[in-house]
UniProtKB/TrEMBL annotation:
UniProt KW Transferase keyword: yes
InterPro entries: Glutathione-S-Trfase_C-like, Glutathione-S-Trfase_C_sf, Glutathione_S-Trfase, Glutathione_S-Trfase_N, Thioredoxin-like_sf
Segments forming a coiled coil: none
Identification of the protein by name: Glutathione S-transferase family protein
GST N-terminal domain residues: 1-82
Superkingdom per UniProt: Bacteria
Stretches assigned to the GST C-terminal domain: 87-212
Keyword Transferase in record: yes
Provenance organism: Solimonas terrae
Record keywords: Transferase
Length: 212
């Protein structure tokens, strides 16, 4: 049984699935994909994901795209971990935050990543003030939602980590470099520091450096 993760390691979405795999202790083969050089547009990759985007999980003859779906799949391989709660209410509480991340949080964080990191990395010009203002407004709306929840519970879906934390925290993996405005959210900062202190976070971060 061979599980492969096709990723461009510097990407926060790639970091998400790498962090999850290490936190869940799932064995995998890393398959680097360089989208800057057209790596996601090859016939082989397109057969795995017709959207031509990474990350992609390949497990024997099964392939799966969308980072949060991959996180759920990895957690399903380790049911004893409790990261995908067995009870319906607990599971839905965790999955709810995954939907929130993909619909709201990731797009807000992505503005700062693109304007303050990607543009510089690929010589795409200066940050767009209008886009950064849009990002600021999104953070002003979404930051209190996340900070408020983390003021009530140690982790996003309750007292212990679930797929919710594995999915939401990685959007902040380059928060300092991207200059994301998180200084006003103490509960978020406490939780992020706890995520960053996990060995799995450091292991996933180490995989980003060679390709960065």
């Amino acid at each position: 049984m061979s599980l492969k993760l096709h990723v461009f390691p510097p990407s926060p979405r790639a970091f998400k699935v790498l962090f999850a795999a290490h936190q869940l202790d799932v064995d995998y083969e890393l398959v680097p994909v360089n989208f800057a050089n057209g790596g996601t547009k090859t016939p082989g990759f397109t057969a795995l994901n017709p959207n031509q985007r990474m990350p992609v999980l390949e497990h024997d003859d099964f392939s799966l795209w969308e980072s949060n779906a991959i996180v759920q799949y990895l957690a399903s391989l380790k049911p004893e971990s409790g990261y995908l709660p067995a009870d319906l209410n607990g599971r839905m509480q965790a999955i709810k935050w995954q939907f929130w991340e993909s619909s709201h949080w990731d797009p807000a964080c992505a503005i700062y990543m693109f304007e303050n990191v990607v543009k510089k990395l690929f010589s795409l010009g200066e940050p767009n003030p209008a886009e950064l203002e849009r990002g600021r407004q999104l953070f002003a709306r979404l930051g209190p939602v996340l900070d408020g929840q983390l003021g009530r519970t140690a982790c996003l879906a309750g007292p212990r980590m679930t797929v919710a934390d594995l999915s939401v925290a990685p959007s902040l993996s380059s928060a300092e470099l991207a200059q994301m405005p998180i200084a006003d959210y103490p509960n978020l900062q406490r939780w992020l520091a706890e995520m960053q202190a996990l060995p799995a976070w450091g292991q996933a971060r180490a995989l980003q450096r060679p390709a960065a």
